[in-house]
Amino acid sequence: MKIIGVILNTFRESIRDKVFITIIIFAILVMVSGKVIQPLALGEEAKVVKDIGLNSIALFSTLIAILVGGRLVYKEIEKRTLYLIITRPIHRWQFIVGKYFGLLLVLFESILIMTCAFYLILILLNISASLNLLLSVLLTFFQLWVITAIAILFSTFSTPITGAVFTFALYFIGHLTRDLKTFGAMSKSGLVKTLSDIMYYVLPNLANFNIKGEVVHNVTIAPQIIVLTIAYAIVYSAIIVFASCIIFQRKDF
């Protein structure tokens, strides 16, 4: 019950955040811009609009996770409300876990809003709104499990700006981990191969969550790939949240 209280409080605070509202509005405007680009698509209008929509959902939900998530713990410390919270009968790990799932609830709502807007735009433009597109949205949401966990981790020991920079860096590197492993395999140096392997398994592998191209072009995706990717997100994010709890537990307030 204590964790549920933190979750609901985090949700209420975050949806009132100006950053959250601004990003949602901007995301919908970008999706609507597909109408302007549509005449220039040269026969690929539907694919272009779908690609813009799915990428907007992924990009702007990630921005919410990083910009809002990076301030969750720091904001409590800055306002000194954290000192009141930790004096209550609630464990520090419950506070972190509550913040994490509270932000995930916010992200679920944001993705739901953007997805509804996306499908509405497709209908208004007379483009087939296949339910297959929801597979990409589903994996985007589970990618956010990982990004949110990383944002929460940095928020336990750094300022929002520093945390955002490092989380953005890991987000972009996470889409290049396959390339890092390939580069290491091509190298003649044993040290480089070892380091590339370590980075491949330690850093988040976010490329697996990107199936936007496949669903837009109606490529069949094996169900086991979806299941394994979701399982990876749950396990990886659980490890990061556990690390966040340990760091937060050892902080001296």
List keywords for this structure.
253 residues, mainly alpha, 78% helix
Outline the structure in words.
The chain has 253 residues and is mostly helical. Helices cover 78% and strands 0% of the residues.
Give me the number of helical elements.
13
Q: What proportion strand?
A: under 5%
Give the overall shape.
Answer: globular
Rg over CA atoms: 20 Å
Q: Find the count of extended strands (DSSP E, 2+ residues).
A: 0
Question: Main sheet?
Answer: none
Task: Give the fraction of residues assigned to helices.
Answer: over 70%
The helix/strand order is HHHHHHHHHHHHH
Topology of helices and strands:
Layout: H1 2-15, H2 18-32, H3 34-37, H4 45-69, H5 72-78, H6 81-85, H7 92-124, H8 133-155, H9 160-174, H10 177-186, H11 190-202, H12 212-216, H13 223-250
Helix pairs in contact: 1-7, 2-4, 2-7, 4-7, 4-8, 7-8, 7-13, 8-9, 8-13, 10-11
Summarize the structure.
By secondary structure, the chain is an all-alpha fold.
